[in-house]
Amino acid sequence: MIEMKVSGLAIDRTSKMPVVILTDIEEKRLLPIWIGVYEADAILVALENIKVPRPMTHDLIKTIMDSLQVGVDRVMISDIKESTFFAKIHMTANGKEIEVDARPSDAIALGLRTGAKIYVSENVILQATSIDKQKYEKEMKEFKEFLKDVKPSDFINYKD
Fold first, then answer.
1. What radius of gyration do the chain's Cα atoms show?
2. Model confidence over 30-56: pLDDT tens digits?
């Protein structure tokens, strides 16, 4: 599992559909997930901490969970099949771990409201992420520059 965060929302120019952008903690890998307009709105409200006059669905779910003392431990984007993403919400209730199937957009919207960490499985990472090539190339260039000046003697006096 790779920990990721919501980097933001965008609109796909071709389909005109919202896309939630997840990035790994180092912001080297990008995972775009196409979602619906209402789901994007629910994520945006949580991301921007927008106050709404009446509770939205995910706010209601959080309130119910809080009143039942159910905690969200983590959200996991667990699989991808035929370009469809699958997620699971991992919760704890009465000391018992519970795993619930969810759409990624709903899992993310609830996770943002509860402060739960978002993880993506290795399988999904391998199939669907993009690498920030500019950042990767810059870091590789810096590392190569560093290696040019390194001598074995630089490591001789190294102590744990």
1. 20
2. 899 999 999 999 999 999 888 989 999
| Residue 123: other Cβ atoms inside 10 A | 12
Q: What structural domains does the chain harbor?
A: 2-132 (3.10.690.10)
Residue 115, amino acid: G
Q: Whole-angstrom Cα distance, residue 131 to residue 119?
A: 17
**Neighbour tally for 116: CB within 10 Å:** 20
Burial class (CB in 10 A: 0-12, 13-18, 19+), 28: middle
Strand bridging mode 70-81 / 96-102: unpaired
0.85 surpassed by pTM: no
